[in-house]
Design brief:
The structure holds 2 protein chains of 2 kinds. Chain A is an alpha/beta fold. In chain A, helix 4 packs across helix 5. In chain A, helix 7 links the parallel strand 11 and strand 12. In chain A, the strands form 2 sheets. In chain A, strands 1, 2, 3, 4, 5, 14, 15 and 16 form an 8-stranded mixed β-sheet that branches. In chain A, strands 6-7-8-9-10-11-12-13 form an 8-stranded mixed β-sheet. The longest helix of chain A has 26 residues. In chain B, strands 1, 2, 3, 4, 5, 14, 15 and 16 form an 8-stranded mixed β-sheet that branches. Chain B folds into 2 domains: 138 residues, Urease, subunit C, domain 1, CATH 2.30.40; 294 residues, TIM Barrel, CATH 3.20.20. Chain B contains 13 helices and 16 strands. The chains are: A alpha/beta, B alpha/beta.
């Protein structure tokens, strides 16, 4: 991956830079790199809880030890040593919830026109835009999601375009700007969209795409252009010819062909997802996840064979034609096939209760004899979501060495009566239901009677 | 995860044939009556002619009654979805399947969605197998069509229907007239929420004047009115309090205007939406104005909702306000009433209050609690049999009864599910049905 003269900032360099402390002049970091700094934390042991590790395991009466922002140990009767002790008996502990599909900050509350920053609906291919440049950190939805146990989330552009632009993964921490929220070293996503939305948006302007076949021609043309750009770039890197002029749109698409940017593909229908696999094969890229996938259950085997996740809702259906065949058992049938199943929100309401969305599926599955225990379902909103975002090596499970992103609940997260009690991000207590004065409140929420975070 | 499939069919088997029986006795369940009897353990419900003829413990079962053993089960009244467009909207984004709004000058208060209700809509079956037995159909305000026509501040008559198989679906025709205040009202009234109030006030003034001068008006010997004759007639039911006026309204100051108007015109008002209703809870209680609350919405989606919060229901109920859960955008997922109720329990309501908010309270708000909403002798037999706590999201009904009849527990979604539950077959899925 040596692309030192590549117009793309090499990922390795990003990794190195973002790991550095900001210099005195603050100028030694790559532009737009993560400037996230974990909040101060103290070594803490959470004692005596039911622990869903996110790996598929459930431990009873277990402890979770966090130190230096990392999970140090998980298991029964761990030595507290010299650290803060939190009695978590009767509580359930899970990895911090991860939402693979959110528009918080880009379509924030209040949802006024002036805040509509999620769809650059001016051309079917806007791979050049980065949604992070739309994210408004004062969206009250971030704090509401935190109360719902969400510690990381991917913000995606909307689905008006075939290529909507880059997505960004954030830590759900208050920041003055998006850089202070960016999940360190997380790969970028590229939002692509199938189906009704692009063809409606452009067809109504008498432009292509106006049909699904127009959609596919649009993807293929763009990949041909990107492959050509990439070839010229790589040739120039090895001394053959001039490098192409820098092009933000093609940099992103070439990043996908390089395997550095993950494809997140909004797609509802089984037949369309199948065609998208053909396109990915034709141009030799991977679809990391289909999003929404209301018909994913019809092709669970294809998804598994392609190692592609399905990030879906529990029960949305009927709001448009391509969502007509949505069923509540979608996630259950995918999970049964050992397909990477992710419960996503796409909603500032849904993100607050991804655990409840999962519960709906567990119940529907039980009705038809598919047993999905809590330790399995939690993967949909933790480790599987982390896999879809390309961050599973550092977060998404409660295992030693992982980031200490942890949610403590006052019961099973799959009960409608359960609420979060504490949320830790990199070992720091960011939300505590019993200590509102210590919780974040966005600028927008100040002075209102809404109760997000600490506001009263 | 290759668990063998067991379709839970015991109860279905038990009830086979009962639809034809004159009398049915459901025995052994824990029955949450939501009536004065409260919760009864090991109770019996007797159903005859579509109505509950007795409910209690140690009651005698008439000879010849079909007995259904519901031991270990939980029975609640049927759920009542007070807002939405079940049977008026098949696919949200397919215009031809949507009949809940109209634009232009022809109709305001009198626009009658009851004539568009389709009992064979997929949404009817999907809703009822999750326990929804009754629904309020509420017309919606709408922005401009291609000709620039808006809908009126008054978007029409709301009607209560049952979701059973009996072809006479209308339970209470024109139970409410829907009005739109706040941002929605501003949008259709010309750019200010104050204009929406004026438009409504003019319509009510005209309806009062029409009441007194009907003959002269019909002779063509009277002044022009701001709305049509059919609308003036529709508004008479609001003025004589046989129908309520249902206001889509969220901001506390707008709700205060509703309370004031209700007093001024002596009409029955209902607040729907009500994100900031909790801020004027005492005034709502004093004025006997009930609230149909979106139990989940806790973010400032617009500036009318800046003070939305999750414990609204508990604040309102504790102040003495009748609260039902419902959301006008929840047509396809009206079945999520139980989620709203469950979340409200996590935020201060008692379990019994939460169940009431999705059964008896909406019936009361629509003025149909005399024969619906609770499991009491004489009421229509809408009931839901559950295997576990109905408010838990992992719970689904085993069987639903509407007007005494067990409904088919099949929907388009269960058919799709069953087709794709199978994975091994020689021929494509199209051959599995």
């Amino acid at each position: 991956m040596s692309k030192l003269i590549s117009p793309i900032i090499p990922l390795a360099a990003l990794l190195l830079l973002s790991a550095c402390e900001p210099g005195a002049d603050g100028n030694d970091m790559a532009p737009y790199a993560s400037r996230y700094q974990p909040l101060a934390s103290q070594p803490t042991i959470l004692k005596g809880a039911t622990v869903l590790t996110g790996t598929g395991e459930r431990l009873e009466n277990a402890d979770v030890v966090m130190r230096g922002g990392k999970i140090v140990a998980v298991g029964p009767d761990l030595d507290a040593g010299d650290m803060a002790v939190v009695d978590a008996s009767g509580m359930w502990i899970t990895p911090g919830v991860i939402d693979a599909h959110s528009h918080l900050g880009a379509y924030p509350s209040p949802g006024v026109d002036a805040h509509s920053d999620g769809n650059e609906a001016t051309d079917p291919n806007t791979a050049q835009v980065w949604v992070e440049h739309s994210v408004w950190p004062q969206d009250p939805g971030f704090v509401a999601a935190l109360e719902g146990g969400v510690t990381s989330l991917q913000i995606l552009p909307g689905s008006a375009n075939l290529f909507g632009g880059r997505g960004v993964t954030l830590k759900n921490v208050p920041g003055r700007n998006v850089m202070e929220m960016k999940f360190p070293d997380a790969p970028y996503g590229l939002k692509m969209a199938c189906g009704e939305n692009p063809k409606r948006v452009y067809g109504s302007q008498r432009r292509s795409p106006a049909t699904r076949m127009g959609n596919v021609a649009g993807y293929r043309s763009a990949w041909i252009e990107a492959a050509d750009y990439r070839m010229k770039r790589d040739n120039a890197a090895s001394g053959k010819g001039e490098p192409p002029k820098r092009d933000l749109r093609l940099e992103t698409l070439a990043g996908v062909l390089d395997g550095e940017i993950l494809v997140h593909n909004h797609c509802y229908r089984a037949d369309e997802m199948s065609v998208m696999f053909e396109i990915a094969d034709e141009f030799d890229y991977k679809i990391t996840a289909f999003h929404h996938g209301v018909e994913a259950y019809k092709i669970a085997d294809l998804l598994r064979e392609h190692d592609t996740c399905a990030a879906i809702w529990a029960d949305w259906y009927g709001f448009k034609m391509e969502a007509f065949d949505g069923i509540r058992e979608n996630a259950a049938l995918l999970d049964r096939a050992d397909t990477c199943t992710v419960m996503h929100s796409d909603s500032d309401m849904g993100i607050q209760r991804l655990h409840q969305e999962s519960a709906k599926v567990m119940g529907a599955a039980a009705k038809v004899g598919i047993d999905i225990p809590p330790e399995r379902a939690i993967r949909w909103i933790s480790s599987n979501a982390a896999k879809a975002l390309g961050i599973a090596d550092v977060v998404g499970t409660l295992e030693a060495g992982k980031m200490a992103d942890v949610t403590v609940w006052d019961g099973s997260p799959f009960s409608v009566y359960t609420k979060t009690q504490k949320v830790y991000i990199d070992g720091a207590l960011v939300y505590d239901r019993n200590n509102p004065s210590g919780n974040p409140v966005t600028d927008f929420t100040l002075g209102t009677s809404a109760q997000h975070g600490g506001a009263q | 995860m290759n668990t063998p499939i067991r379709v839970a069919g015991t109860l279905l088997a038990l009830i086979a044939g009962s639809a034809l029986a004159q009398t049915t006795a459901i025995t052994g369940a824990t029955v949450h009556t939501v009536g004065p009897a409260g919760t009864l353990e090991n109770a019996t419900i007797i159903i005859d002619g579509g109505r509950i003829t007795n409910v209690g413990t140690n009651i005698s079962i008439p000879a010849g009654a079909t007995r259904i053993d519901a031991s270990g089960k939980i029975i609640t009244p049927g759920l009542f979805s007070p807002l939405g467009q079940i049977g008026l909207s098949e696919v949200g984004a397919v215009a031809g399947t949507n009949d809940s709004t109209q634009r232009g000058e022809d109709f305001a208060a009198s626009f009658d969605v009851a004539d568009a209700f389709n009992p064979r809509s997929i949404v009817v079956a999907i809703s009822r197998i999750d326990g929804v037995t009754r629904a309020g159909l509420t017309p919606r305000a709408s922005g401009p069509d291609e000709l620039g026509n808006f809908s009126h501040v008054l978007s029409g008559l709301g009607t209560v229907v049952h979701l059973g198989d009996n072809p006479e679906h209308v339970v209470r025709h024109g139970a409410v007239v829907v009005a739109n205040f706040g941002e929605a009202g501003s949008g259709v009234a010309g750019g200010s929420r104050a204009a929406a109030v004026q438009v409504l006030r003019a319509a009510l003034d005209d309806a009062l004047d029409y009441q007194r001068n009907k003959e002269a008006y019909d002779r063509g010997d009277w002044r022009e009115y701001s709305v049509s004759r059919t609308d003036l007639n529709a508004l008479q039911s609001v003025l004589d309090r046989s129908a309520a006026m249902l206001f889509n309204v969220n901001r506390a100051s707008d709700i205060s205007v509703v309370i004031q108007l209700a007093e001024e015109f002596n009409i029955r008002a209902i607040v729907a939406g009500g994100s900031e209703a909790w801020m004027v809870a005492d005034r709502l209680a004093a004025a006997s104005v009930p609230v149909i609350l979106d139990g989940i919405n806790n973010l400032p989606g617009n500036f009318d909702l800046v003070n939305a919060r999750l414990d609204s229901a508990s604040i309102l109920v504790n102040a003495g306000v009748t609260v039902a859960f419902g959301a006008s955008a929840q047509t396809h997922n009206a079945r999520l009433l139980t989620q709203s109720a469950g979340i409200s329990v996590a935020n201060g309501l008692t379990w019994a209050q939460a169940l009431e908010a999705i059964t008896l309270a909406p019936a009361r708000i629509y003025g149909v609690d005399g024969f619906l909403g609770s499991l009491e002798t004489g009421k229509e037999a809408d009931l839901v049999v559950w295997s576990a706590d109905p408010l838990e999201l992992t719970s689904y009904p085993d069987q639903v009864y509407i007007r005494g009849d067990p409904v088919s527990m099949q929907s388009r979604q269960t058919l799709l599910r069953d087709r794709y539950l199978q994975t091994e077959s020689e021929r494509p899925p199209a051959f599995r049905h």
